[in-house]
Write a structure and sequence with these properties.
121 residues; single chain; 16% strand; alpha+beta; 4 helices; three-stranded antiparallel β-sheet
């Protein structure tokens, strides 16, 4: 009933696990026969929506969107490098970019930590 597509990735959302497996196999066969594309069987994954969907630097859940762990760690590392360098202007655009990216997810406390320590209003 529902699907999400971004570039070469797509997600099909449904209720019945067996039906989703059949749809995945049909998509794989269609891609092979009609589009001459090979989708390896291990790239078709059927999983519970409560475990989240990892897409575009965030993990999507039905009830929230949180930044991926790698994004959280890198933003804090960038803040540390920025502070150690004596607030040099070379690190500033990167840090502000992380703050802007984090605005698109539920990460209020991380955003506040970055803003307060970097003196960003």
């Amino acid at each position: 009933k529902y699907y999400l597509r971004y570039n070469d990735d797509f997600y099909i959302i449904g209720v019945d696990r067996e039906n989703l497996s059949v749809i995945g196999e049909n998509v794989r066969q269609f891609a092979a026969n009609e589009l001459e594309l090979n989708i390896p069987p291990n790239k078709i994954i059927v999983r519970n929506i409560n475990s989240g969907v990892d897409i575009l630097g965030a993990v999507l859940y039905p009830w929230r969107k949180i930044p991926r762990r790698r994004l959280r760690v890198r933003s804090l590392r960038c803040l540390t490098n920025y502070c150690r360098a004596g607030y040099n202007s070379a690190s500033w655009p990167k840090l502000v970019s992380y703050i802007g990216l984090l605005k698109h997810s539920q990460s209020f406390w991380l955003q506040e930590k970055l803003r307060l320590n970097a003196n960003v209003l």
